[in-house]
Amino acid sequence: MPEFDINTEKRLMTDIMELLVTHYGAELSEEDLDHEIERVEQALNDARFSHQGQMRKSGEPYIFHPLRVTHLAARHWMDFPSVIAALLHDVVEDTPVTLEDVRGKYGEEVAHLVDGLTKVTSNIMTREDLKKETYKKTLLVAIDDIRVLCLKFWDRIDNLRTIDALPRHKQKLIAEETRMVYVPLAQHLGMGYVATELESLSYSLLYPRRAIRYNETIATQQHDNADFLRKIRARIMNACEQQKLDVVMKDRWRPFSVVSGRSQQRGFASLYTLEVQVDRIMDAYLFLGILHGLFPPIPGKIRDHLNLTSQHGYQALKTTVQADEHRMRVEITTRKLNSIQRIRSSCSRVQVPT
Questions:
Q1: In terms of DSSP H, where are the helices of the chain?
Q2: pTM beyond cutoff 0.85
Q3: Residue 93 annotated among the catalytic residues of the structure
Q4: pLDDT of 31-81, one tens digit each?
């Protein structure tokens, strides 16, 4: 394995371990944390050994796919059994390792997750029937344990991000499947971030030329409005400092989709959102007052989802203001609610809606 790949593997594993310690270090005793970390390290060794010599279509050593899936799982607060299952999620399907091997070494919980991620196999069923049976199997397991579906989302996101080496017709089939099956599932679970990511990746594969033009438009808007945004943020920050209000502001540019592609002609107003995080819900309303004192709000554009989560899974105040020459969308939430939304996106505490 080239030196770069070894360094990349070490960096990914270091990030994964740091995320796990950060998320769970306060919940577990030192002894329990060390035990779980050892199990993760063992799962990495087993995955590396099982996939040894296997390469993806791109020529990349296969181990990097489960590593990236595991990194996504760790970033989104998934627990230790989920992280171990992410590392091992392809071993039963693609290597001589059996589900009984996984169960014997890592227990029923991890084996259950790995089983839910393993495709159905048969020598007599058609490819289409096998795909339907795999959907059915995954969903039946997910009814009992939603973490299976979450791991499937992270697996699909990495596959879409690294799909370039596949033939064009296969890329389109996978993208269409994602759009028709996985995006609605993520939306149904209230995982707005995941649904948006899957949808954007899918549409970029289905409509590559539109995606390129759209991304060029975004790059132009970012360049042309850099000074404007710097001045607007400075005015907002100065007003907040006068009120001794601590805020964090982030730029968010709309990801590509068919809808965003059609609306890009409206320019900045349809492509940009200023994200604002404050400490308390009371501060969110205070910030809204400060913002409307600086820039007049557009009538009918205020939405309050701080206390009642929206159908897309976010909790925030939304408003649109006339900021000098531009209409600008602003989304305000608290740090705690932002963290909860990230946890919700992880599936670690999601309940299946009825």
A1: 3-24, 30-50, 64-75, 80-88, 91-94, 99-106, 108-117, 127-144, 147-161, 168-177, 183-188, 192-206, 208-224, 226-242, 258-263, 268-271, 281-294, 335-346
A2: no
A3: yes
A4: 999 999 999 999 999 999 999 999 998 889 999 999 999 999 999 889 999
